[in-house]
Amino acid sequence: MAIPLDLVVGLSAILFGIGVVGALVRRNIVVIMMSIELMLNAVNLAFVAFSRMHGSNEGHVFVLMVITVAAAEVAVGLGIVISLFRNRDTVNVDDVSLLKW
Amino acid sequence: MTNVEAQTSDLLRLIPLFPLAGAVVHGVMIGLLRRSLPRSGVVAVSCGAVILSFLTSVAAVSELLSIPAGSRVLVDELFTWIGAGRFASEAALLLDPLSAVMILVVTGVGSLIHVYSIGYMDDDHRDDKGFQRFFCYLNLFTFSMLMLVLGDNLLVLFLGWEGVGLCSYLLIGFWYGDRWNAYCGSKAFIVNRIGDFGFLVGIFLLFSALADAGHATVAFREIEGAIGAIADRTVAMPFGGEWKLLTLVGLCFFVGAAGKSAQIPLYVWLPDAMAGPTPVSALIHAATMVTAGVYMVCRMNFLYAEAPGASAVIAWTGAITAFVAATIAIAQTDIKKVLAYSTVSQLGYMFLAAGCGGYSAAIFHLGTHAFFKALLFLGSGAVILAMHHEQDTDKMGGLRRYLPRTHAVFGIGVLAIAGFPLMSGFFSKDEVLLSVFTAHEIPGHLFLYGIGVVTAVLTAFYMFRVHFRTFWGECRVPLEARSHIHEPASTVLVPLYVLAFLSIFAGILSPPQLWGDLAGITESNSLHHFLAPVLSHAAEHHIEHSTEWILVALAVSAFLMGGGLAWWMYEINPGIPVRIRESVAGLHRAVVNKYWVDEFYDAVIVRPLVVVSDRVLFRGVDAAGIDGIANGAGAMVRAFAGRFLKYAQTGLAQSYLFFMIAGTLAMLGWMLRP
Question: What is the domain partition of chain B in residue ranges?
């Protein structure tokens, strides 16, 4: 039994929206990064859905690509967070705003 | 000549290839490997290249001679240089009688001067790498000159034309450690560029007219065939009136020729070009490069046949240049300056002949002049070597006791240029004057003839003057320096002997028919008949032998008068020149200062140009205008962004993210608008 495309894309949009809001309103860097993961996976879901609709494999290839890059991004991001916490004793984004006028 | 089927010959490409290879070898050594060959290696490469080129030229010319006289054309097509639509220009070489004479002169005299340079430059210890650099330029020059005379079309000719100009610049400023030499090189280059601009405009005009008439070509033989199609065209001049197009083209070409061949008003660079080493003066500024303009006018004779106005201008300019330069030469004391003005004067003779339709006379004089003027320059170089780079004849005198051989060969050169009967200069000058005398179509041709004869008197006078002041009379060299004066090495002397031989006998090969009839030879004027197929547009004039004998007598008396006057003034009564100088002090000052032409150009052209460039173009347009706009734009951006836009830079990552998402949504909304 096939799930209708509308539902899948709608789920993807909802997940993406949650991710955007989370990235904008939360102050904890770790949570912001989790929100970014959420957005990425929403996109992955859309890729898979459209790929299935077209009956081609290209969307799957993109998904694998995105997962790889996301893993690398998280590794670098968490490294920065740890380094930041050791030096400034905080993970609050509002406290790291040195690069301004 | 146009409808002749050309034969091809692969030999031609070798002629310029040898000197080019020599120049490339030297260039790679100096420029890339940064080390110089030993001097013997440099000599072997350079002189070997030019001598090989000479031998190849001889072989190619003998191949040319084996073809029946009417159809002597050899062509060597290398590759298509420019192909654009219907227009194609080949990089092709052309050997016909005219270029045959030129390549023999260029490679023959060039070989002698290369050999001479070994001895001359060996004396120069200022710069060890300079030795190789010198021969590199000399080879490059020979290559360019050969491309110039062998070119089958105007583009290849122009390539060589610019190449020789470049080499002239490099060699005049060869000892660039002295700022004056560098200045002289720049002057020669810039004055030549003025002429080249005229030449280029001429090429463009001619090409656009030909293309308009359906003959898009720059090849000489094709232009010759198509020239009739545009012969009747006229152009409206900006100052009113209609000119014949070909007259305008001919004048533009002559502007180029006047620059390269140092004619009024562009002659000012040649005397200053004497700043270069003496072999350079002999090769480039006497025998070969400065004759390129004469060659070009002769090459385009079919054009000038349709442009009588341009021919008249050439004849008059040549005559005036010949006379003015000769008067300046009278009062110069620098031995090379005398020879430089003499060269300008003799080039004037060639243009006088070419303008009067005597193209074969011009080429004849070109060839003999190459021999005797190269001899005179190289002889003066031998004197300069012996005097340890002293060029002022005021500090010489009586040198024949120390330099008997140099004295003898220099004397032969003086006799040849002055027109001693039966020597080369005598015959060629006669040919020139005869062609002027019979040129009825040139306005005032008898007056031009008169100028020619007077110039012949002046020529004999100043040449004997410089000879007497250098080699005869009392010795004005300081006593302690006299023991250092010695004859130069054999590499210097042997080329002098060969050139002296040629200066005496080159004329015998092609005496005017007048002399041929005496000896019972038909067609004795061999050069004229050899060149006739190329110069078929030259006007033929016949003249009674009795009249011709009178002209010969006039020429001989001109020689006797000039020479005798010099003898009387500088040998019999050495006090006379001083008294004359004092009695016409104003005139003397004008002549010594070369009529202040350089100062005039400086005041009228150079200084206003510098002032306008500095005050208006540099400080006004460039510094204030263009720099002002660029710097002002930067300042305005800084003022606006620094005051207002900087607040967007909050340092909060989430505010950036917010603007990014807002922007994306705005773009999406705009793209998805109903």
Answer: 7-579, 596-671
